[in-house]
Amino acid sequence: MNRVLLAIGEPNISKILRNNLNEHHEHFTVEQQEVLHHKYFDEIIGTAPPDIIIVHDTHLESDKGSKQESELEWLRFAESLRERFNDQVRLVFICEREKGDPFLHELLNRNVLDIFHTRSIPIATLIEQLKERPRYSNAAKFKVDRPYFNNAQVNASVQDETDGHVEEEEPEEKEEKPTNVIQKVVEKKVVNKIVNKQVVKRNYKVNVTQNVDRVVGVPIEKKLVLIGSPFSRSGSSFVSHLLASVLADIGIGATYIESPFSPAYTYDRYSGHSKIDFYRSSFYQHTKEIDPKKPSVFHWELDGINMVVKHPSDEPVYTEKEISFETFVKVLMNAQTPVVILDVGKDLNKEVYQDIYDMANQMYMVMEPDIANIQYLIESNEHSPSVYRKVMEDEKCKLIANRFDKSLQKNDIIKDLYDKPLTASIPTFPSKEVTESQINGEFLIKNKALQDEIDESINPLLKELLPEEFLKKKSKEGSWIKNLFSRSVSIESN
Fold this sequence. Notes:
CATH class of the largest domain: Alpha Beta
Number of helices: 20
Structural class: alpha/beta
Helix content: 40-55%
CATH architecture of the largest domain: 3-Layer(aba) Sandwich
């Protein structure tokens, strides 16, 4: 069995390769995680090197500005694989180049024996070739007599291994003071960090928007949904669990991600200790050293929901130093479901969540009818409340009222405190039923006696997240979702 890591950078090609390789599961297992940028190779490969890496010449994102720099980057990468793993990691190179391109000859010299150079990728040929051991005869046609390098290029490669170009010497009389040099370096690092974040955000959006799943024949665009609250214990986890379970119940795959910056809760809430052994979250997988001698499970599916939650005794409350923006995006990219629900709790003021907010399709802010808290949120000059106020002014952010009786929504004081209407209202469910669901480690939706209340409270969110055509089809199937159409409401298509 060969473990395959995809580093394509183009979601449609990745999906085609993944689906076709999965059909040959007796030969291949495709890693859920994909490489989205050259700079992630070392981190991802270093922890557990795969048997096969499939890359794309131009689609995979790179910081290199020219074709020559990009080619040098690929050649260094191929050489580093040989040095580190003694030809045990097989590199498959997909590109659109002429057969006589001298760059392909240089790849061949670095023992890259699986090169597919035509615009149309021969999937069947590729898979059959990968079932066999690497053969020189498969790539011998790329051998050419023309040299790829001249002396200047070789010197550039040696002199600047990180950037791929030669530094120009500055005249002595123009030499700047050390303080100015330090300042310029710091400014450059800050600019590069911002630019890199923008690249990652753009790549994530491209991967999300171009991947459309079909459920009962209806295309479902992938959505990243953030759910949080300015205050602790206001119900962001409760609402997140409820929404995820309703989506799964109507056939929409959902991923629930618990904030790594808050104490573990969900694992115990759903009796993880009795349902899955050796579990650790994806955050652990990307930040801790994995002992290959000990069993580890990083995937937990519960009632059709992909659960990414912390183990309460084996994982810490992570810090932003441990989980960077890039690491968080890797976890998001591993979620292959149409809807990803990120429960940010009261951590929205953290920098990493500010960046993820930019990538999200929707943000739901959970509020309780606590007048003192609401006044504090409106009037406080502290940093955290100001962050929440700014987010709540955005059109992407909607309000969810939790533990609200219907009469409270008509209260003049409550209405005056909110600048925007409440999208949904979650009632106070009977404590007996809620406690029983916790004891049983089940989602509240399992309690059929509460179906109508759950139905009424979650339907407004379904109307925002799912296509009208899908909701109508499900209602015709006799699903409880039919209540969406039994009332005189119109559903706006996203």
